[in-house]
Amino acid sequence: MEFTTLNNGIQMPLEGFGVFQVPDPAVCKQAVLDAIASGYRLIDTAAAYMNEEAVGAAIRECGVPREELFITTKVWVQDNSYDGVKTAFNDSLNKLGLDYLDLYLIHQPIGDYYGAWRAMEELYKAGKIRAIGVCNFYPDRLADLCLHSEIVPAVDQVECHPFFQQKDALRNAKEFGVALEAWGPFAEGGHGIFTHPVLTAIGEKYGKSAAQVALRWNVQRGVVVIPKSVHKNRMEQNFDIWDFTLSDAEMEKIAALDVGHSEIIDHFSPATVKMLSGWKIHE
Hints:
41% helix; alpha/beta; 11 helices
């Protein structure tokens, strides 16, 4: 495992395990236990995933000391306000059964996310969170928050894979000292990523799969990846990316796959904002 150093000096694993779309408590708990047993130490969840309790149960049973784990969760749009974060943070901490978080993120730049950020800054200063950051903040939103906040986000988690490479977002994040983290590193299976001829051909040279090449490409750019699977053999394969290095020519071949936009969600659409704003996770 390799690490990236966040802008406050904290070490964050370059690869973690995500639990988006794993709402079943038993399945989620077992998946996290399997992931930790496979070597993962970064676990990424969110209030909106409705599985924080299952993640917490796995953390308690995994046998790995808490200080060796890097636990991330996120505040949902519904709670994007100063007071909302104070309540939502405690709810997440209680569901996870933890005394502190390693990373707390604003899930979407919608609503009073500036009020939310001020509350997160206070929680960070109080030692409740080791690092604070954002999710789905495209370059303009990230720049605005960085320029008008006391504490610059440590992380920005965005969709990022060979077909949507987020070159502008990566360049902008580096300018502000923010680490980029990739959700959907497999494009949610789009573009035939698992059998894509370019990725497969590169992988054959190293005895690796197209999926492993896609993950390796991102971490070589300094982007943190959080692949998801409920199958232990896939988890182990996804984690087995540290014994090879892609050449500059191979990185360039993958760079040519970029279509320059998301085919999963349009964050710039008013319809998306309406949909996300109407998604309630509690009364």
